[in-house]
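Quick question: what would this complex look like in 3D?
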Amino acid sequence: MSTAAEPAGPAALSTPREPRLILLHALASGLDLERYFGWRRHRDGDPFLVRFPGFGSAVFTGTPAGAREMFRAPVELLEPPLPNPIEPMVGPASLILARDMRHKRERALLAPAFHRNRISAYGKVIRDAARAELDGERTGTPWRPGRRVDAREAARAITLRVILAAVFGIDEPRRLAEYTTVTTEFLNSFGGLLFLIPALRRNMFGLSGWERFTEARNRLDELIDTEIARRRADGGGGEAVVCKDMLALMLSTRYDDGTAINDTDLREQLRTLLVAGHETTATSLVWALYRLHREPGTLARLRTELAEAGTDLDPAELAKLPYLDAVCQETLRLHPPVPIVLRRLTGDFTLRGVPMVAGDTMGVSVHLLHSDPEVWSEPQRFRPERFLERRYSPFEFAPFGGGHRRCIGATLADYELRIVLATMIGAVRLRLSPRFARGRMPLTVPHNIATGPHAAITFDVLEP
Ligand code: HEM
């Protein structure tokens, strides 16, 4: 079968059912991807074919058997699908878009910075970032009783601070403020239609969204280039205040042939980390807070665990608390920030009995996988206990994707989620604002690379 934008070839005879009324399907998937995928699987079975106007089409599976096939497919048959809507943000050299030997090479260069032993050194940075937000460093108003807070704004501020500290070692207030402004402008300038419709990416006498985006990207690149030049002049390293940061590690690591990464590629990898490591974790934090405050029993159990552990627990120990861990996993199960994981084929492959050829794209729907009734009892219920009762395989629970492209930041994200959540829950009592406390769950919509709640979820700070 052919899943690219061009007409299907002869092998298309064995494709799953083709959706007709493509624009209606595109609209339905754009409005509520989760529901649309659920409906498609119910109607067409697993796997099923989805067309994305402008980006081609893909055969999706949402079962552990399908995920196993895709994540275990021979690496030489797989590449990331192109065009990719986030390419303008991350750049063509990005790890996310790299293929074959180049992917292997870049991944090996970045991997030491994400090693578990290094990540544990960021515990204090993460806790300080959460405390700074609670103290009102960004807004000027601490989280005191009577205040209403926007969880998404707060979560984004915390995760941005963490990523800036972890990647660039920035925590001096003036530089932090400069990087925060420039990075936020960059991230906010590429969304909505610009993300989805490549035809809009053009100049119009300085007035288009595309020009605003490229200007913001240039400002960010200037900051990154200055920092790279400063580090190289210092001899490549540079110690962050708390620990050696990721940039220092990338500068000191060498490819197998002994050469170092060049400035352009390094700049794009750094932009990739800012893009991939910020909104994803922020969204998960918001959903975790939302779910906990809709389930008083769950929140109470977490509070008890945290109280018994003590407030001064070392962040690394905190991150190991079993119920906290289960809450974070259950949040990622029900609200995976990256809802689809895609691979483009460079040769013949069969996914769940569907023969595919070079150029075809296949994908795992993480929502479907995480709600498969064969694996998950009461799949729609938020019940962290399930993660204490049994272990799930990487083909049943895959919020970070799988195989050779599994999220390189997974350990950092897991660690950050646990420490920030514990710091917040341990420090303040919150109540969901009336609009969110009852009624329907907010819809999940795309925010750049991740998806998240469509509305700004707010909380009221209560007396302790
Ligand atoms: C809750 C937070 C996060 C989630 C749910 C998440 C999820 C994902 C997923 C699903 C993928 C695709 C994996 C695949 O294709 O199999 C991915 C890739 C990636 N993520 Fe994450 N991510 C998160 C946080 C982070 C962080 C904190 C960083 C870095 C600071 C990061 C950096 C990356 C990079 C560079 C890739 C591309 C890996 C490759 O192609 O080799 N992510 N992530």
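Answer marked as accepted. The chain has a mean pLDDT of 89.
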